[in-house]
Write a structure and sequence with these properties.
With about 260 residues, this protein is α/β, with parallel strands linked by helices. It folds into two domains: about 160 residues, Spore Coat Polysaccharide Biosynthesis Protein SpsA, Chain A (Alpha-Beta Complex); about 80 residues, no CATH class. The protein has seven helices and eleven strands.
């Protein structure tokens, strides 16, 4: 069954060679770039993939556009910091088109953070709907935390995973967090959500304890502690920005981060 891999990029040179090398088995690779100024475009051209340009106006619409440009109905959406393992490649090739009634597959994705594979906690083999038949649907139009919405069909979960090496440094993490929390605050405002002072205050300790103790990130050592702390900070910053919007204080227009990684 022919499969088109699609991704969106912006200044994604750090991992792009490895990402594209792991997709050579796909029938085609389509990249939708929103204005890279590093070596992203030259790397893509060197690897022989199809590159299109589209100004960024949100993750849902950008990925939906990329899906629409594929020549095959089965599309595999890969972020520019996710490397497909050989085991996942072989599983996809053996299953797609062989199972009647399947509209898509959830792909397990495992986080690499501060150079360590996070084998414990919620970031190990977390399933995401990334491989699907677009005749059943595509991405919604949310600015951030976008989802694939399919009408009918089964969606089983694959056994093997992609490796998600999102953050090259802590500096890059905070750059991304700033952009995503701004986009997330605007998305919440657009859906009529409100932020109270109490919500902002209690979210940090509650989220930290959940991530570090209940989800067992303490078993990931130093990386698990830092991840739990930053994960607790994320919703606090997002809801604090929503509170700013409620107070009619404008936020700067967000731009997509160098590597496309969503946080909840």
């Amino acid at each position: 069954m022919p499969i088109s891999a699609v991704m969106i990029t912006l200044n994604s040179e750090r991992l792009l060679p490895a990402v594209l090398d792991a997709l050579t088995w796909c029938d085609e690779v389509v990249i939708v770039d929103s204005g890279s100024t590093d070596q992203t475009l030259s790397i893509a051209q060197e690897k022989g993939v199809r590159v299109l340009h589209r100004d960024f106006d949100g993750f849902g619409t950008q990925k939906g556009y990329a899906v629409a440009q594929a020549k095959n109905d089965w599309v595999f959406v890969v972020d520019a910091d996710e490397v497909v393992t050989p085991e996942l490649r072989d599983e996809i090739r053996s299953r797609v088109g062989q199972e009647p009634g399947v509209a898509g597959y959830k792909v397990p994705i495992s986080l690499i953070f501060l150079g360590r594979l996070m084998r414990h906690g919620g970031e190990f083999k977390m399933p995401h709907l990334r491989l699907f038949n677009r005749t059943f649907g595509t991405y919604n139009t949310r600015r951030v935390h976008e989802d694939v919405e399919l009408a009918g069909g089964r969606v089983p979960t694959l056994a093997n995973h992609m490796l998600h090496d999102s953050y090259g440094s802590l500096h890059e993490y905070f750059e991304k967090m700033n952009r995503y929390t701004t986009a997330g605050a605007r998305d919440l405002q657009g859906r009529g959500k409100r932020a109270s002072l109490g919500q902002v205050i209690v979210r940090l300790p509650f989220t930290f304890l959940k991530e570090y103790l209940l989800k067992m990130n303490l078993l990931n050592g130093y990386s698990g502690f830092v991840w739990s702390l930053f994960s607790a900070m994320y919703p606090v910053v997002k809801y604090a920005k929503l509170h700013e919007l409620q107070q009619k204080r404008p936020l700067p227009e967000e731009r997509p981060s160098r590597l496309y990684v969503n946080r909840t």
